[in-house]
TrEMBL record:
Family annotation (InterPro entries): Amidohydrolase, Bact_exopeptidase_dim_dom, Peptidase_M20, Peptidase_M20_dimer
Cofactor section: Mn(2+)
GO molecular function, one term: hydrolase activity
Protein name, as recorded: Peptidase M20 dimerisation domain-containing protein
Alphabetically ordered keywords of this record: Hydrolase, Manganese, Metal-binding
Pfam families linked: M20_dimer, Peptidase_M20
Peptidase M20 dimerisation domain segment(s): 204-298
Residues annotated as binding Mn(2+): C114, H116, E150, H181
Length: 428
């Protein structure tokens, strides 16, 4: 029995899953506080007799393990955290949650502005479908719910907490790791790509030091605000003048903080920088240029001391394994037909998903198992087409927008089908 036949006959009625989705959307949890998502996932998997469920891995992370005879071990991953964004969608199930962010202690509005609530729901329905079809496949299925993906720390935390240590969590090392993400693309579509799929991303907090003083006596001070301003402008030349135009890179200054009032020259300024690249050699070049420019501008301004660099977060490259991705693509084309794009464009967004594969110890005793990550659409096709034809794609709400809200159907059924089809490509 092929994936399409299994899905048409064994996919559960999705009305209850739509209710789960709305509940998750209305009650999101920030990174490290994904309690409702974890409780919902664990409760659902425990009702599927045969799944061995292990919770509280690396925080609120959990796995459900279904051993179903000989064969490969396939791990399917869904992320669970929300973002500090005030929702403006106007949906009847919009989030009004406010929560204290454990990162800085400040209360913030919370929204599932990246679609992780859709990921959770699709995974639960996919697990149910594969459970119902267990007479049709053989192997071991691992359903993994990962916290703290938005800050790039959840996968690392689960690995560090002994995810693949069978004495701790009884989770076998997978042969294949699979995952997906809903994107601002027409719903009903899926996209795969061999090789680079998501960019690496590096986050820095850089403090530059001047000498504080009175605004009426600038000659007696060293102004870190002017120093920071020169740095920000000069950083924009890295991509435009040092990166090959045929390559891809981004350098973003997301925050500058200095001083408290108008008539005091501050003693220091803090710049928060994000770098995204799709090639390892470009990453090395851009990070070197970043440090060179910051140091040079500090020297040119007569800074009172060397800048302080703090790495606040880092996401690895997501580079899909060729053989694995080709197998997934073949299965997707068979099931989705022309709605599958086997040459989807590289995403500038970043993911920590790959760590679940690259940090696993393979059967040869080395590091790393193959993985594939794909996208699926969540935008009403008519709205997408109309905006594209009108040249107004900048009005399309994207991930992390306060207006981002996937169309529930057929987004959900597409995400379910993709997970089931991808898994069965290796379990049959």
């Amino acid at each position: 029995m092929d994936a399409s036949t299994i899905l048409s006959s064994m996919r559960p009625n999705l009305s209850s899953y739509e209710t789960i989705y709305k509940e998750l959307h209305q009650h999101p949890g920030l990174s490290l506080q994904e309690h409702l998502a974890a409780k919902t996932a664990a409760s659902h998997l425990k009702r599927l007799d045969g799944f061995k469920v292990k919770t509280n891995i690396g925080g609120t992370g959990l796995v459900g393990i279904l051993k179903n005879g000989d064969g490969k071990t396939v791990l399917l991953r869904a992320d669970t955290d929300a973002l500090p964004v005030k929702e403006l969608t106007g949906l009847e199930y919009a989030s009004e949650v406010r929560e204290v962010d454990l990162e800085d202690g400040n209360e913030k509005p919370v929204m599932h502005a990246c679609g992780h609530d859709m990921h959770i729901t699709c995974m639960l329905a996919a697990a149910t479908t594969l459970y119902a079809a267990k007479e049709q496949w053989s192997g071991t299925l691992v359903i993994l719910f990962q916290p703290n993906a938005e800050r790039g720390a959840g996968a690392k935390a689960m690995i560090a907490d002994g995810l693949y240590d069978e004495k701790r969590h009884a989770c076998p090392v997978p042969d294949i790791v699979l995952g997906q993400h809903v994107m601002p693309l027409p719903t009903g579509t899926v996209g795969t790509r061999v090789g680079s799929f998501c960019s690496a991303s590096d986050f820095f907090r850089v403090t530059v030091y001047g000498r504080g003083g009175h605004a009426s006596l600038p000659h007696a001070a060293i102004d870190p605000v002017v120093m920071a301003a020169h740095i920000v402008v000069r950083l924009q030349t890295i991509v435009s003048r040092e990166v090959d135009p045929r390559d891809s890179a981004l350098v973003t200054v997301g925050s500058i903080q200095a001083g408290e009032t108008e008539n005091i020259i501050a003693s220091e300024a803090t710049i928060k920088i994000n770098v995204r690249t799709v090639k390892p050699e470009t990453r090395t070049k851009v990070l070197a240029a970043l440090k060179r420019i910051v140091k040079a501008e500090c020297d040119a301004s007569g800074a009172s001391q060397e800048p302080l660099w703090e790495s606040t977060s880092s996401f690895p490259f997501t580079i899909n394994d060729e053989e694995t991705t080709n197998k997934v693509a073949e299965a997707f084309t068979k099931h989705f037909g022309e709605s599958h794009d086997a040459a989807a464009p590289t995403a500038e967004a970043s993911e920590d998903f790959s760590i679940l594969a690259t940090e696993a110890t393979n059967k040869s005793g080395g590091k790393g198992v193959p993985y594939c990550y794909w996208s699926f659409g969540g935008v009403d096709p008519k709205i997408y087409k109309d905006l594209k034809n009108a040249g107004k794609m900048d009005q399309l709400p994207v991930n992390h927008s306060a207006y981002f809200a996937p169309v529930i159907q057929p987004t959900m059924s597409t995400g379910i089908d993709a997970l089931v089809t991808g898994a069965l490509a290796f379990l049959q």
